């Protein structure tokens, strides 16, 4: 069985000077220390301490061996999205990031699958970049779940997603810039509450707006962190659709009938929660995702999958690798 982690981040070595292409829009860069540790920086502000696996492919591959992970889909750290920048600057930034990710993954192309990022604030340029990235060897696209107040139910973003489907690159959606941040300043609540809420908002917004009726059925779309709170609250959404015309105004079918249109990763950390997620989504729509190499990720990849009650050997194999192989189209892994 090949174990494939679809949710693993990278922050290639980018200098302070190189980050200035995003002048005034976060300017993310990596400060590497002599002791092998590092600090993700946002301009002159320290953002998060990190370990070498985030930028050192040799260290990552050694850790993957120890953790029993055969393949990772490697995506940028969301701090690097650059969505607040002027579009031309953001495009230049994404070009650089994508080249660095390709270089990082070239150290083990059979084990590290590069995912590109795009300047989503300009959907037309993003579509052009997806085509270029696919030709260069990227295996997917990593995007945030919104750009300012534009979520994935936005018409221009529909066109971008349809282009991804046409090119044949799957899309990994990660929450970021969480809502209600001013009310969740302590205890990492933006990550613990805001991230699941952002993802739930994105999925349900796409369903109830009718977006899935306008997006190609060939699009492969995966939402991180188990789809946030979507699975747990799906019954509430279905009940509202059946009983309120305001809810079903733009969606011809109840929300539960759209679960076959997207995937989620398994990063819910509790076998009981994972059991619910599989019951709601189906074992063919859940893929191993760990949020590696961050401390809020699953530190023993696949442990929740292996401990999930009532999961057959066949479904365990699908979730740990088979579904991801289908999602990324097989190939050299």
From TrEMBL:
SUPFAM superfamilies: Metallo-dependent hydrolases. Keywords: Decarboxylase, Lyase, Metal-binding, Zinc. GO terms for biological process: secondary metabolic process. One of its GO terms (molecular function) is hydrolase activity. It comes from the Bacteria. Transmembrane segments: none annotated. Belongs to the metallo-dependent hydrolases superfamily. ACMSD family. PANTHER family: 2-AMINO-3-CARBOXYLMUCONATE-6-SEMIALDEHYDE DECARBOXYLASE (PTHR21240), 2-AMINO-3-CARBOXYMUCONATE-6-SEMIALDEHYDE DECARBOXYLASE (PTHR21240:SF27). This is 2-amino-3-carboxymuconate-6-semialdehyde decarboxylase.
């Amino acid at each position: 069985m090949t174990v494939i982690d679809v949710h693993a981040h990278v922050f290639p070595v980018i200098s302070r000077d190189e980050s200035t292409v995003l002048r005034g829009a976060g300017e993310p860069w990596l400060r590497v220390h002599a002791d092998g540790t590092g600090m993700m920086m946002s301009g002159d502000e320290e953002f998060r301490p990190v370990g070498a696996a985030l930028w050192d492919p040799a260290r990552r591959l050694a850790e993957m061996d120890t953790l029993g992970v055969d393949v990772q889909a490697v995506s940028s750290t969301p701090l690097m999205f650059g969505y607040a920048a002027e579009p031309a600057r953001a495009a230049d930034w994404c070009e650089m990031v994508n080249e660095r990710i390709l270089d990082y993954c070239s150290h083990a192309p059979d084990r590290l699958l590069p995912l590109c990022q795009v300047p989503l604030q300009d959907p037309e340029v993003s579509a052009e970049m997806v085509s270029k990235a696919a030709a260069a060897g990227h295996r997917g696209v990593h995007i945030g779940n919104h750009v300012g107040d534009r979520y994935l139910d936005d018409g221009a973003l529909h066109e971008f997603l349809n282009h991804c489907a046409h090119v044949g690159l799957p899309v990994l959606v990660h929450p970021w810039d969480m809502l209600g941040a001013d009310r969740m300043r302590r205890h990492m609540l933006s990550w613990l509450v805001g991230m699941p809420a952002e993802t739930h908002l994105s999925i349900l917004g796409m369903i109830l707006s009718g977006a899935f009726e306008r997006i190609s059925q060939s699009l492969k779309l995966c939402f991180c962190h188990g789809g946030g709170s979507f699975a747990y609250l799906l019954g509430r959404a279905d009940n509202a659709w059946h009983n309120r015309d305001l809810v079903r105004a733009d969606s011809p079918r109840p929300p539960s009938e759209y679960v076959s249109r997207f995937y989620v990763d398994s990063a819910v950390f509790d076998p009981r929660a994972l059991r619910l997620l599989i019951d709601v989504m189906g074992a063919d729509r859940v893929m191993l995702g760990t949020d590696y190499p961050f401390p809020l990720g699953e530190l023993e990849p696949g442990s929740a999958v292996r401990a999930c009650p009532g999961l057959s050997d066949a479904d365990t194999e699908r979730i740990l690798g088979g579904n991801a192989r289908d999602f990324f189209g097989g190939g050299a892994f």
